[in-house]
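Hey, can you fold this one?
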Amino acid sequence: MSPIRNLVALGKMLWPTLMLCVWLGWPDIINAGNGSEGAAKATADIARERAVDDVELWFPVGESFEYRLQWGVLSVGTAWMETEWEEIDGRRLLVIRGGARTGRIVERVYPIENHVVAVVDPQTFLPLSYRQRVREGRRRRDETTIFHHDKGYADYTCHRKGETEKIEIGNDTRDLLTLFYVIRRDGMQVGETATFQVLVDDDVYDLTLTAQKFERISLPEHGRVRGLRIEPTAKFGEVFVRRGRMWGWLSDDDRRVCMQLSAKLPVAGVHAVLVDVKGPGKDRWVD
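Sure. Predicted structure:
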């Protein structure tokens, strides 16, 4: 396979890893154009129906993570995620942003850029809304999901097509971004298996996580850190690997930081390696 064809194949394979890392959102994505004003209003309407009390969460709001995306030893992009409090129509809500983009080498042949943001009810830690904007090669996507857990459905809107549909959901159906923080809260034991219901695009799927064993992961800024290896499996194509396997490592401490994600694919291995942690708190991650 030629170097160019290798890079194009890499770009296509990066997409599952970018989605699992749950990455980046534009700071103004909630109030940006192209349909997002309606999403913000719907989120605020749902929030008003719920209590306004603040809650203490299991992670320091304001933390941010940066990851280096690697194809073998070659650096091919960056990914990051962050949290913050935001006032939306008089309600203090949690906003989780994440995203990723390819670097200059892959960008020339198969650019990928993903911006996602979830607005979360801090009391129930259920998502109120989820927005994603995706550029993958020549493909573009711009979608918003508004969750109505009390009514048993979600409104999924494809802004490029101007279409909205209702999707039946369960009491604890979540997006992948919110689910990541739930896993950090609950943790897992070696040998434990847990299944979650996730809404991906316009379909609901069962995602199964299996905690396999503790291993030490080498990080550029933190040395070798002990973490729990977890393998996700699901029956949907664009989020996880179709013909391969994927693992994530959560640090063996109270913060349960996602230290690395690795996808073993037919052509190559792709990795997202933690390179920086910022925000409040004083522990081994933040000085």
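The chain has a mean pLDDT of 81. Let me know if you want another pass with a different chain boundary.
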